[in-house]
Amino acid sequence: MARKVRLGIIGLGAQGSMYARFIADGLVPNMEVGAVADTDPAKQELAATLAPGASFFGGYEELLDSGTVDAVVTTVPHYLHPEIGIAALSRGIHALVEKPAGVYTKQVAELNAFAATKPELTFAIMFNQRNNPLYKRLKEIVDAGEIGSILRSNWIITNWWRPQGYYDQSEWRATWGGEGGGVLVNQAPHQLDLWQWICGVPEKVFSKVAYGFRRNIVVEDEVTAVVDYGNGATGVFVTATHDMVGTDRFEILGDAGKIVVENSKTATVTRLRKPERELSEGMDMGAVMKLFMGELDTDELYTTETIEFDSVWGAQHAGVLENFAANILDGTPLLAPGSEGIKGVRLANAIHLSSWLGKEVPLDFDEGEFLELLNGRIRAEGKFSERG
Amino acid sequence: MARKVRLGIIGLGAQGSMYARFIADGLVPNMEVGAVADTDPAKQELAATLAPGASFFGGYEELLDSGTVDAVVTTVPHYLHPEIGIAALSRGIHALVEKPAGVYTKQVAELNAFAATKPELTFAIMFNQRNNPLYKRLKEIVDAGEIGSILRSNWIITNWWRPQGYYDQSEWRATWGGEGGGVLVNQAPHQLDLWQWICGVPEKVFSKVAYGFRRNIVVEDEVTAVVDYGNGATGVFVTATHDMVGTDRFEILGDAGKIVVENSKTATVTRLRKPERELSEGMDMGAVMKLFMGELDTDELYTTETIEFDSVWGAQHAGVLENFAANILDGTPLLAPGSEGIKGVRLANAIHLSSWLGKEVPLDFDEGEFLELLNGRIRAEGKFSERG
Q: CB distance B232–A224 less than 8 Å?
């Protein structure tokens, strides 16, 4: 029988239970559940159903010290990911942190720095969308230079509709002290990660963020951000949780092509025959008039490819779990190294900060200032203790 | 025989010739060409072909003083629209100004102020897109409140591809002193007008504008603007002239519905059965899970309508000419009153100004400061005299 990684699931909420089910259903062949931890004792029954042979603990430290697991996944509120990640790694236990890696860069940087001292351990993050075959393929196309240098990107991702009842489910949700934000830290981290993974890390951000705009919450439910990559390239990111008929449309313009992704499902890839400026320089007004009138054979100018993959429920998440275990067992390269998590957190922090300050901010903003302003919101909320 | 308005065409370039042809072809039944003016004497032959009975003048003032026309259209470089508009109105001649109404708000405000002293004369602007049946219908839908209050709009209009040869056609094109800007003053004024016509006038603008980004020009060929309507609503406008496979996608989110327009041709209009917040408040988590899994009958939540009109070449422009003449002849309400032209100019100026200052600016920016910064660019260019 092949070796299996014994996973500890820390936090048996919606996400943790889902992973336990994937493993029980055989979707992650190189993994088994060794233990479950949850602060709610009532979860023991659920744990026994989902993972019959696994131990159950009330606290994550008991789980980490029990000797029943080789690795953990942190399906707990976002603020706890760095703390639990460090606690696991410090005991020689491999760590897969849930997204986002944390709420503020300072705490994620601490996690990364600690993980860097344990190169023998596997440190990964649940960016399941990096395991979406469509985005993997688009990343390859962009990295191979098939659409040239990126000039502009635009992602409208508003199909995160959530009713008020969703926010009222638990005390920590949609709070500054418990969750650390709204759509930027809960729903959109995947897209923030994919955006910078494919299009690069911007240098500056200007944002318009609306807090409790269409929901009775204190955190953001609507975001518009404009980024500047410092080389003339720009990007726009729009997200919201109140658009019932949401949009998911991602457009990337390069100087030798273009990609338009609809619904994270279908991509139209245009590859120019030559760089756009060469086509521009080589075309006389006669050819241009023909182009405008639709009389020019565009095949001479570019090709168009449509890419679509069937998606299978759970395959992305299960694939990340399997890849994490494979890295532990035989060094298979990670789909999403844990140290990458900070990039999306930094982008989300910069978007928040720009809206708080009412001005454009650099991506290497003052982390102390961010934390101070975040703590001001936690104090005003009066439900949770300050962070830092 | 019905009365006809005798039109003076000032400037027989591409646009002026096109209008002469529309009139010759009978597309504007209540209009005839009385005279043509062009500073290029060689245009006299073209004028004789397009409008055989019309007089020809080398200067617009001669045309205005000739007694051969009741009205004029100003198909001349943008800076001249206000000056010629005022000259016509001051002689009791009706004026249809081309878009944009001018290059900077100060000169357009002078035109508007003068026109206001001549209420007996017709003062209109060639916003032919306001005569596009699709946008007319969408304006009705929004004004009737069918999608509720507007929360967000997003227009990517990058199908204005122009090669270098286009910019090299004439000395004034794509200069600060001759044209006053790039895509914002030449190609995009229609969309800037439609955007504010349908979605309202914003209070603040932040922009990223790239000058000579992908073309050998000094003016802008790439624009990203974020606007703030002051009531929580926001908008994004993106335009460029270097996207060979351009996008035209306009999305308007209201609190009771949504409109998505593709290629200025097809609109998908979603009307919610109740305002979105009511739907949000009334839905329990069971219903939400069903919605996410695609098991809910969305007919109970909203209806979807697709709107599409056949477009006929020239019909929009000819319709504006006919409407202008009809207003002169019998007081038919104007599709695009001349005084409306300033709104798009103000928006374009604010977008330029924000990029020059590197910060968000109010729509009621300092007009003197704008003109000073524009003149600075005209001086640096060294080809044209300053404005003011």
A: no
Q: Which residue of A has its CA nearest to B272?
A: A244
Q: Which of residues 240-259 of B touch A (CB under 8 A)?
A: 240, 242-245, 247, 249, 251, 253, 255, 258
Confidence of residue A119 (pLDDT cuts 50, 70, 90): very high
Tell me the per-residue pLDDT of A179-188, one tens digit each, with 9 for 90 and over: 999 999 999 9
B128-163: pLDDT as tens digits: 999 999 999 999 999 999 999 999 999 999 999 999
B164 vs A228, A280, A358: nearest CB? A280
Contact A276, A169 (CB under 8 A): no
Structure confidence at residue B108 as a pLDDT band (50, 70, 90) = very high
Pick B281's closest partner by Cβ from A164, A213, A359: A164
Cβ–Cβ contacts within 10 Å for residue A86, how many? 18
Q: What residues of A are in contact with residue B240 (Cβ under 8 Å)?
A: 152, 253
Rounded to two decimals, the pTM is: 0.95
List all residues of chain B from 290 to 349 with a beta carbon under 8 Å from chain A: 291, 301-302
Please state the three-class secondary structure of A350-376 as a single string. HHHHHHHHCCCEECCCCHHHHHHHHHH
> Cα–Cα distance between B306 and B268 in angstroms, integer?
5
Tell me which of B220, B234, B297 to substitute to probe the interface with A (most A C-beta atoms closer than 10 Å).
B234
Show residues of chain B in contact with A215, CB under 8 Å. 280
| Range 44-63 of B in CB contact (< 8 A) with A | none
At residue A114, the 3 state secondary structure works out as helix
Measured on CA atoms in the order B352, B355, B358, B359, is the torsion positive or negative? positive
Phi, psi at residue A254, to the nearest 5°? Answer: -110, 170
A236–B280 C-beta distance less than 8 A: no
Give B16-79 as a 3 state SS string: HHHHHHHHHCCCCCCEEEEEEECCCCCHHHHHHHHCCCCEEECCHHHHHHCCCCCEEEECCCCC
**Do residues B47 and B75 touch, judged by C-beta distance below 8 A?**
no
* pLDDT band at residue A221 under the 50/70/90 scheme: very high
Helix (H) or strand (E) holding A264: none
* The residue type at A6: R
**From the CA atom positions of chain A, what is the Rg in Å?**
23
pLDDT reported for residue A289 = 79
Nearest to A245 among B161, B169, B258 (CB): B258
Per DSSP, the residues of B253-321 read EETTEEEEEETTTEEEEEEESS-HHHHHHH--HHHHHHHHTT-S-GGGTEEEEEEE----TTHHHHHHH
Beta-strand relationship, A31-37 and A5-10: parallel
Whether A359 and B360 have beta carbons less than 8 Å apart is answered as yes
**pLDDT-based confidence at residue A28 (cuts at 50, 70, 90):** very high
- β-pair type (A71-74, A94-97): parallel
| pLDDT one-digit tens code per residue, A351-370 | 999 999 999 999 999 999 99
Q: Where are the beta strands (DSSP E) in A212-294?
A: 220-228, 234-240, 248-254, 257-262, 266-272
Picking from B249, B279, B285, the nearest residue to A244 by CB comes out as B279
A161 token code pair? 């509709």
Which residue from B208, B228, B270 is facing A234, i.e. has the nearest CB? Answer: B208
Q: Classify residue A337 by its DSSP letter.
A: B
- Length of chain B, please? 388
Which whole number is the average pLDDT over A205-227? 98
Question: Smallest Cα–Cα separation from B166: which of A280, A133, A233?
Answer: A280
Number of Cβ pairs closer than 8 Å across A and B? 140
Q: For residue B209, what are the β-bridge partners? A: B223
Instruction: Please enumerate in sequence order all residues whose Cβ is within 8 A of that of A172, keeping only pairs 6 or more positions apart, or say none.
Output: A77, A178, A179, A384
Is residue B97 within 8 A of residue B125, CB to CB? The reply is yes
